[in-house]
Design a protein that fits this description.
mainly alpha, about 65% helix, about 5% strand, globular
């Protein structure tokens, strides 16, 4: 009897859990390493290199489950869409899906990291100036253009792919020359929108640092021991003020900051994901990369029972 199972083709990512773990581990250490480099000045690292390396390793291992989830989700989506690993275009599409998935799943990790480090209560409501920089505007030791350039790298790749998908699937019903021009305009508009979106994202992320304040409903009440505010030997409390609440759109600004950090780190994550997927594709059996002409047709039920 001939088996009814269809052989694996290039549209199937024949990687096991070990392969996904390796990809996630490499991505976690490289992406977290770049993010930590952006926040740690070389002078600070030289003063305590051991603690910096230990923090890098700990943060990378803590974020490993999120990276594994993002990599696994991206590969499942690629399998569902029929994106194979037998061509460079397929590997590039899988890498872009991995970057897009990680940019989303790393956002809750950013909030968890801030909660663990108690960073949400360490930032001042009013920015203060130190050495010419505004605390609350940019906490990176590098300049804003550097962070913007890092964000643009994955955004440009995703925008180019998205524009290509839209341009190839939209039905314009125009003459050939006009149709080609219109599709080119769609792709150009998508690519142009990437740096503009990165710039607006950076501006929103800058506001998140100054917007982090205590989120509490407790009223202000301070007792001052002074001969002016003492009655019958007892201190008189000051009038209670309004409740301390977060600045407007504080959560949206923090989401923008989390998305900014994820995209900046994924500037190195995109080539790393592409190299890792290429390495795994080389390890897959040759039968997993058969062309459609080489695929064995699935016999009918009548042929299988003969």
């Amino acid at each position: 009897m001939v088996p009814l199972t269809r052989p694996k083709t290039a549209s199937t990512f024949a990687a096991d859990g070990q392969d996904i773990f390796v990809i996630s581990l490499v991505l976690s250490f490289t992406v977290i390493g770049l993010d930590q480099f952006l926040y740690t000045a070389p002078v600070q690292f030289q003063e305590a290199p051991g603690s910096g390396i230990l923090r890098w390793a700990c943060d990378s291992l803590i974020a490993l489950p999120l990276f594994a989830l993002g990599v696994w989700a991206a590969q499942r989506i690629a399998d569902w869409r029929g994106i194979g690993t037998g061509s460079r275009a397929g590997l590039l599409r899988r890498s872009l899906l991995t970057v897009a998935s990680l940019a989303v799943v790393l956002i809750p990790g950013w909030f968890a990291h801030n909660w663990l480090d108690n960073l949400t209560q360490a930032e001042p409501l009013v920015p203060v100036h130190i050495h010419g920089k505004v605390i609350g505007a940019n906490l990176h030791w590098v300049s804003d253009p550097v962070v913007l350039a890092l964000m643009v790298v994955p955004l440009l790749a995703l925008a180019a792919w998205g524009g290509y998908l839209i341009a190839t699937r939209v039905r314009l019903r125009l003459p050939r020359a006009a149709d080609i021009a219109a599709r080119g305009i769609i792709m150009a508009a998508a690519i142009t929108a990437a740096p503009v979106a990165a710039w607006f994202l950076q501006k929103a992320a800058d506001r998140s640092n100054a917007a982090r304040v205590y989120n509490t409903s407790a009223l202000l009440s301070v007792k001052v021991h002074s001969h002016v505010l003492v009655k019958n030997g007892q201190p008189v409390p000051l009038p209670k003020g309004p409740p301390v609440t977060p600045a407007p759109y504080a959560f949206a600004y923090q989401v923008a900051h989390a998305f900014q950090d994820a995209l900046a780190g994924l500037a190195i994550g995109l080539p790393v994901a592409l190299i890792a997927l290429f390495w795994i594709a080389r390890r897959l059996p040759a039968r997993d990369h058969q062309s459609p002409d080489q695929q064995v047709p699935v016999p009918s039920l009548r042929e299988a029972t003969e």
